[in-house]
Specification:
Layout lengths: L5 E5 L9 E5 L10 H5 L4 E4 L1 H7 L2 H9 L3 E6 L9 H6 L1 E4 L14 E4 L8 E4 L15 E3 L2
Parallel strand pairs: 2-3, 3-4, 4-5
Antiparallel strand pairs: 1-2, 1-8, 6-7
Length: 145
């Protein structure tokens, strides 16, 4: 088994920006037995899509039900339909999309998110987005698990 890929840093995106966070990556060979001990001191835990694709939602469901941690679950759009209801209700869901050339748009240009119902779309202008200051990542610290 490989060690779980975890690191500590300051959350730079989303509604929990600024909070010291345990970031969790992983692959299918990652060991999870010591995770709760590692996670104990952290108020916020961020799970990236690779972890979820490898390990599913059991650990996340358990954590959100314990009410000991705020959890951010970062997923790709095609993963949303598989998120358990308890995770949808109790975790912060962050949908990650890659749009090549996005930086070319003006602040007044728009992004429209198409929902299943053609009349229930979300539109926002580019100027409303929170831009991540990536220099904050320089302070991230890897953890041995």
């Amino acid at each position: 088994m490989e060690p779980l890929n975890v690191w500590v840093g300051t959350e730079a995106e989303g509604r929990l920006t600024g909070i010291r966070t345990l970031f969790v990556g992983g692959n299918s060979n990652s060991e999870l037995s010591s995770f709760e001990t590692v996670a104990e001191p952290f108020v916020h835990i961020f799970f990236n899509p690779r972890f979820i694709m490898s390990h599913g939602y059991d650990l996340i469901s358990s954590l959100v039900c314990s009410n000991k941690h705020y959890c951010t679950v970062c997923i790709y759009p095609d993963m949303l339909q598989f998120v358990p209801q308890i995770v949808l209700e109790k975790a912060h869901i962050m949908i990650s999309v890659t749009i090549e050339g996005f930086e070319k748009l003006k602040q007044t240009d728009s992004l429209r998110v198409m929902c299943d119902d053609a009349f229930n779309n979300v539109v926002t202008n580019v100027g409303s987005f929170l831009m991540t200051d990536i220099s904050i990542y320089d302070k991230d610290e890897p953890l041995e698990v």
